[in-house]
Amino acid sequence: MSAWIAMQGKPLRGRIAIPGDKSISHRAIMLAALAEGRSHIHGFLEGADTRATAAIFQRLGVLIEAPEPSVRIVDGVGLHGLKASNGALDCGNAGTAMRLLSGLLAAQAFASTLVGDESLSRRPMRRVIEPLRMMGACIDSNAGDVPPLRIAAAGTLHGIDYASPVASAQVKSAVLLAGLYADGTTRVSEPHPTRDYSERMLQAFGWPVRFGEGWVELEGGHRLMATDIQVPADFSSAAFALTAGCVVPGSDLVLRQVGMNPRRTGLLRVLAQMGADIRVEDESGQGGEPVADLHVRAAALHGIDVPLDCVPDMIDEFPVLFIAAALADGITRVRGAAELRVKESDRIAAMANGLRGLGIRVDETPDGADIHGGTLHGGIVESHGDHRIAMAFAVAAQRASGEVTIRDTANVATSYPGFVASMRAIGFALNDELRDG
Ligand code: S3P
Known about the structure:
The chain is α+β, with helices and mostly antiparallel strands. The chain has 2 domains: 3-20 and 232-431, Alpha-beta prism (UDP-n-acetylglucosamine1-carboxyvinyl-transferase, Chain), CATH 3.65.10.10; 22-230, UDP-n-acetylglucosamine1-carboxyvinyl-transferase, Chain (Alpha-beta prism). It is built from 12 helices and 23 strands. Strands 21-22-1-23 form a 4-stranded mixed sheet. Strands 2-15-17-16 form a 4-stranded mixed sheet. It is globular and about 60 Å long.
């Protein structure tokens, strides 16, 4: 099992480039595969999750070339050109791959089975099975609504007007992808607006889509036409260096051209309320997405009540927010974040236990926690195979009084290959350690 040893390093300095956006990379492969013609994807995330998606489409008969790192050339087969695979399709650790593909494959004229790793095999799938069944799809799962997902060859699906009980871009996207093949209008509304990459990218591939804050609708029966996609840097990956820049004294860092979609940048609003010194500079657009440099300098943070309306806009950033909170003056209260319990790990429990082990008081609630700011000492932390838990504790260690061992770190490669080298380059004290057993 791989592990990291981390401890206090230097003030963080320099300019850092962040790998491509995971959500956008998944969607770019999927839509390019279903389009007519050749699409080029630049800035593709070379992570295990997004590579799993590309490998699945290759097994479904799509030619995908990788002429150089972070570039993919996809020869789309058209909406009805996918071929059955012989054997199960492996989504690895990627919830986005499994949930989006469930919608897409539920509409195909052939049967498929989607499997995942140990963590993904524990994650809830009823949230996609239910609306897809309402559309006429035939899907079943293992007991407890967990993977594998067995999807039968589809008859004709029909559009639905679906009020999703969860704020989830994955659920919304699964229904929309099935809706491409359905009769009539497919509409999804959400309790809080979530990332709108599927909507925007469908439009970029020429599919008419109507959408606004918290709703989207489209009709079946159009065509996707190949296009070129520029993937911006992933805000969720940037969040680690950004938070480290806030909490490591003397830091002065620039994160280059980070994706700034407002449905992703809730952490910026929350850190600003906590007293962070982060400047948004050099704003521009890249492939239809806003991007900017983030210039962060160390600052004293104080605890806040995280506003409920920020929660969906920072759903992947809570692990690192817990670290900022642990190092802030006073108590930070998180509520309305029960979804964190069904991510790659139970992120509320994983963060609370890890922080307690380093000397911080955390009071858990079903949908959040009260994190009492304090001082961190060394210790051993379990990441539970969750990439974002591991990276969050690498940030924490930069302020710990002793050495922090972070266990089970291999899955960092799902979203941030090169994390250790990049963080070391800006001043982190962080070492990769390979261990047996
Ligand atoms: C994602 C949506 C979010 C997010 C995940 C990526 C996406 O999941 O946590 O990392 O690409 O649509 P939920 O839809 O479960 O909120």
